[in-house]
């Protein structure tokens, strides 16, 4: 298997008629973690979308090696289905079984329709889906949003284990995210 890698080369991002940032470069290899920080609206989510290939950079290029898993505010789980069945849809596609229900505090919620889940519960469900995906490169947009202290620690620990096993984590958040060895990119320094 090819080793995971994701890199930004002199990226610039435009949303609508506004240039948000320019000159963003970094390279992450197996085991690396980077947190993108900056005020609301600076372009953290937009940068993650560029890295995921969901939007095109205004300038520069993205280099990707290895499967990408993106967690953002949309969990891509059928709101009408009970959580277990909504996750089973993805595990059928990913060919995986979910084993982190307990760590993520989801075992009590498996019969609850996704539409009834709270913001934090939905975020935990999205993390469970990500784990089943077995993607090498994790792109986490505000992964701690809505999580209680216990769930936040669980997500930090799962991310640390992912990196220790040779995965990559790119985290966009204005909240502190505890992960040993993680470096920081201050996006406002690249504001256009
Ligand atoms: N489709 C769009 N068209 C035009 N402007 C957009 C579009 N989507 C987002 N923007 C603008 O781009 C800017 C950056 O948005 P983005 O969501 O990337 O910021 P962010 O740093 O992640 O913010 P937050 O911390 O609030 O999540 C914002 O000013 C937003 O209004």
What would your notes on this structure say?
- Pfam families: ABC_tran.
- This is Heme ABC exporter ATP-binding protein CcmA.
- Keywords: ATP-binding, Cytochrome c-type biogenesis, Membrane, Nucleotide-binding, Translocase, Transport.
- One of its GO terms (molecular function) is ATP binding.
- With 192 residues, this protein is of the alpha/beta class.
- The protein has a single domain, classed as P-loop containing nucleotide triphosphate hydrolases (Rossmann fold, 3-Layer(aba) Sandwich), CATH 3.40.50.
- The chain contains four helices and eight strands.
- It has helices at 44-52, 83-94, 119-133, 149-164, and strands at 5-15, 18-29, 33-37, 59-65, 68-71, 137-141, 168-172, 183-186.
- It has a five-stranded parallel β-sheet with strand order 5-6-7-3-8, sandwiched between helices. A three-stranded antiparallel β-sheet has the order 2-1-4, with helices on one face.
- Strand 1 (5-15) and strand 2 (18-29) form a beta hairpin.
- Helix 2 (83-94) runs parallel beside helix 3 (119-133).
- The structure holds adenosine-5'-triphosphate.
List keywords for this structure.
alpha/beta, three-stranded antiparallel beta sheet, globular, binds adenosine-5'-triphosphate, transport
Could you write a compact summary of the structure shown?
The chain is α/β, with parallel strands linked by helices and 192 residues long. The protein contains 4 helices and 8 strands.
């Amino acid at each position: 298997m090819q080793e995971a890698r994701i890199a930004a080369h002199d990226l610039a991002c435009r949303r609508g008629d506004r240039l948000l940032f320019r000159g963003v470069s970094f390279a992450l290899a197996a085991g690396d973690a980077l947190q993108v920080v900056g005020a609301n609206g600076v372009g953290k989510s937009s940068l993650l979308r560029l890295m995921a290939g969901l939007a095109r950079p205004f300038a520069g290029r993205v280099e990707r090696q290895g499967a990408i898993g993106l967690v953002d505010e949309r969990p891509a789980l059928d709101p009408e289905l009970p959580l277990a069945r909504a996750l089973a849809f993805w595990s059928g596609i990913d060919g995986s079984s979910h084993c982190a229900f307990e760590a993520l505090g989801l075992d009590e919620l498996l019969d609850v329709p996704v539409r009834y889940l709270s913001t934090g519960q939905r975020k935990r469900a999205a993390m469970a889906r990500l784990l089943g995906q077995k993607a090498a490169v994790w792109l986490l947009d505000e992964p701690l949003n809505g999580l209680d202290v216990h769930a936040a620690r669980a997500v930090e620990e799962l991310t640390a284990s992912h990196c220790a096993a040779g995965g990559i984590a790119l985290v966009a958040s204005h909240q502190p995210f505890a992960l040993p060895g993680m470096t920081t990119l201050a996006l406002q320094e690249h504001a256009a």
